[in-house]
Amino acid sequence: MEIVNWKGILESVLFAAGDEGLSLKQIATVLEVDEIKAQGIISEMQHEYEKDENRGILLVQIAGVFQLATKKEHAEYLKRLVESPGTSHLSQAALETLAIIAYKQPITRIEIEEIRGVKTERPLQTLASRALIKEVGRAEGAGRAYLYGTTKEFLDYFGLKNIAELPPLPEKIEDEEVQAEADLFFEKFNEL
Amino acid sequence: MEIVNWKGILESVLFAAGDEGLSLKQIATVLEVDEIKAQGIISEMQHEYEKDENRGILLVQIAGVFQLATKKEHAEYLKRLVESPGTSHLSQAALETLAIIAYKQPITRIEIEEIRGVKTERPLQTLASRALIKEVGRAEGAGRAYLYGTTKEFLDYFGLKNIAELPPLPEKIEDEEVQAEADLFFEKFNEL
Amino acid sequence: MEHNEYNVKIEAFEGPLDLLLHLINRLEIDIYDIPVAEITEQYLIFIHAMKELKLDIASEYLVMAATLLAIKSKMLLPKHEDESEEAFSYEDEEDPRDELVERLIEYKKFKEAAIEFKSLEKDRGLMYTKPPSDLSEFTKDTQIEKSDVDVSIYDMLAALQKLMRRKKLQKPLATRITRQEIPIEKRMAEIIDQLASGGRKRFQELFPVHDRGHIVVTFLAVLELMKRQEVHVEQEQNFAEIFVTSQKGAGKVGNR
């Protein structure tokens, strides 16, 4: 009886696919198994990577595809190889704008500005050039303003499986929260 | 007693280093151990990768650097991966290559590979066959390497009038943003 | 790693709503019951301080100042509660603050979501990936992807983003430049010293160093000292010079 080493094969193809990742369908096709079987192999591997401390990688599902990535707890070692981050962090303005778009999409610039209370052209430009948002259509009415929505890169950038995985938007602001709120103006630099 | 999971850490750093690989010295530096210790960890891992059939990768030493690579016996699956119709669009590799050419043209293959950190022959081939890029000249110097640039088809395809219409590179915008926006009311201070 | 002192992020407020939330937070005010007179005063001091520093103030800040003043004057109008014939109409009359509170709460939701996003961004940044391997050895030279190109400029930019994220690791080992952080507590102590020796100071005199970081820290230090009532800030009339004086008996800095 010949046993096929599915896990070894899956590791090979995921390694080769790199950060392009593979969808469940692609994995099933390459392994020539059905998707249920493929999902079973994936889950098993995810579990093994996680529990084995001699492994430095994980099998994660981000933005709809499966891919290998290093374990977070090894980041400090990886940082030693780094000169400077390849991409800068998003500014507070960009993050706020992105949050509004993520939860309210599709949404126009004017609507975003009404919520933020300030002009928002620049953050929109930054977000578009970083492929985190895109124009998804035009609003009805006189101006036919552009409507914005989030992209697949948005999911990738924040490590989300899909848009449904967004953390819920706080519905009610509690009084204590007002006090405890992390004051961005005084937020620590440590996160750099 | 705290046990450091050297193997897991080494796997992380080798994985992230990709095709560039890491020298023994770099590995020792990152792990903060001496080179003898580093070599010991490497050898142990090489052995484990090889004997474990659930592993799809190997730790190889090529031209003085250590790097991870897929196991030869899984080649047929990788072939299937390449041939699978999975995606009807350009691969991540091709898109990256195209982006680099678009923003940095004219540029040689070697320069592109330096940026991507991975061989780029095939993406170049794909892009040329689709007439999105073309050879636009030869570089000065010994090799007289081909220089690549984008084509008129490229502009047509992405709906651009000319190359200057490409969205500005993100870092640039981010820099400007830091200047112009982050310090909303402190920006004029230099004039005092 | 955790310093208990404030470390200042060199970023301004994101707009008038952000500034108001900041003031509400610092003054420990109930957002649902804002003392309009107090918040308006604080807001105007802030605006005047910016003016004093000859800084451009975005028009949105001035619009908000006008809005606050309008609400304040509405709140001052007599309520007519005793006049029975009109009582019913005032029962369900809107609080003049309602609209502003609604906007603040709506904005605050997204501001909090942005904090959440920031932590996701950071978390994701801890994971490193690798580029797709070059698989050309597995294909015949003649075989070229035949399918139609079906990508947009966004796909290209997204690919570039992935590349740049990855590139982080491929640079040689080198030292990183770290920004110098100025602890706000230290600057507060300096200001107190300065005021103790010289009495009343012009606001601008507190900003001797033309460095953004220093300016922001000083500004925040003054605000914090005001809140702790260790200094008094006065302005004789609108757009006149602002003076800062030390409050008597407040010699100690650093304890809250």
UniProtKB/TrEMBL annotation, chains A, B:
Gene3D superfamilies: Winged helix-like DNA-binding domain superfamily/Winged helix DNA-binding domain. Pfam families: SMC_ScpB. It is found in: Cytoplasm. InterPro entries: ScpB_csome_segregation (IPR005234), WH-like_DNA-bd_sf (IPR036388), WH_DNA-bd_sf (IPR036390). The keyword Cytoplasm applies. The keyword Ribosomal protein does not apply. Keywords: Cell cycle, Cell division, Chromosome partition, Cytoplasm. Participates in chromosomal partition during cell division. May act via the formation of a condensin-like complex containing Smc and ScpA that pull DNA away from mid-cell into both cell halves. Homodimer. Homodimerization may be required to stabilize the binding of ScpA to the Smc head domains. Component of a cohesin-like complex composed of ScpA, ScpB and the Smc homodimer, in which ScpA and ScpB bind to the head domain of Smc. The presence of the three proteins is required for the association of the complex with DNA. Belongs to the ScpB family. This is Segregation and condensation protein B. The gene is scpB.
TrEMBL record, chain C:
Belongs to the ScpA family. It is found in: Cytoplasm. Keywords: Cell cycle, Cell division, Chromosome partition, Cytoplasm. The keyword Cell division applies. Component of a cohesin-like complex composed of ScpA, ScpB and the Smc homodimer, in which ScpA and ScpB bind to the head domain of Smc. The presence of the three proteins is required for the association of the complex with DNA. Its main location: cytoplasm. InterPro entries: ScpA, ScpA-like_C. This is Segregation and condensation protein A. Transmembrane segments: none annotated. Participates in chromosomal partition during cell division. May act via the formation of a condensin-like complex containing Smc and ScpB that pull DNA away from mid-cell into both cell halves. Signal peptide: none annotated.
